Amino acid sequence: MLGSVDRLSGAFLLVFGLALYFYIVPNFAEQMDEVSLSPDALPKLYSLGIALGGLLMVLRPAEQEAPEPRLLLRVALFVAILFAALYAISWIGFVVVAPLLALTLMLMVGEHRPLWLAIGVVVIPALIWLLVTQLLGRALP
């Protein structure tokens, strides 16, 4: 039973990744001539990663027991926090919301080491900001 769920999830991810690569990214990523890295390069790379992960799930489904209902509730909370953060980014902005989101999610998964919290809350959002705004020349919300 679980193998079929993995295969179904994998098939969805495979189709979703391919749709991203062949339709969504090419049609919705703006092309710019004055940047060194094409704005669609990273989204296309990530979409191929999603599709490859989905293919692996289809070909080799996991053989494990069903997760506990409590774990599924934590996953639902995790997803709800992500959606709330995406909404908040459009109103408040990336610079404020991204570190708070990183801190919330890191504490939620049990990370309490100060160095890793600092890296996840300060360094990673700063690198994303630098990559997107400086290297790609795009504005973050």
TrEMBL record:
Coiled-coil segments: none
InterPro entries: DUF1468
A Pfam cross-reference name: TctB
Lineage top rank: taxon: Bacteria
UniProt keyword annotation of Transmembrane present: yes
Annotated ranges, domain DUF1468: 8-141
Transmembrane segments: 12-29, 41-59, 71-103, 115-136
Alphabetical keyword list: Membrane, Transmembrane, Transmembrane helix
Protein name as it appears in the record: Putative tricarboxylic transport membrane protein
